[in-house]
Task: structure prediction
Amino acid sequence: QVQLVESGGGLVQPGGSLRLSCAASGSILRLNDMDWYRQAPGNTREFVARITTGGSTYYADSVKGRFTISRDYAKNTAYLQMNSLRPADTDVYSCKANVVDGRLIAVDYWGQGTQVTVSS
Result:
């Protein structure tokens, strides 16, 4: 009913930049908070950034000053601009959106993730 699709991942050198996109589609009546998380094999999932319905943003300490989350309300899409990338940023990045869907119920939806690899 609602799908989230991430894109924009890839292989970059340390110090490089990437912009990730998370596009929501389907029976969306209202798109609330949108988050980015990341997870490496064997590790727990880590919160990266959040943008609320009203546009307030929150960041993990590890990415403050380097990453910027934004959204395009008309396109139901969230973005994560990642600058000054480090090898420690290597992870699968997934988006999460709180959505009021066609059932008039607010639920969280997850995308499948996109791989970001930072290596020289």
The chain has no helices and eleven strands. The mean pLDDT is 96.
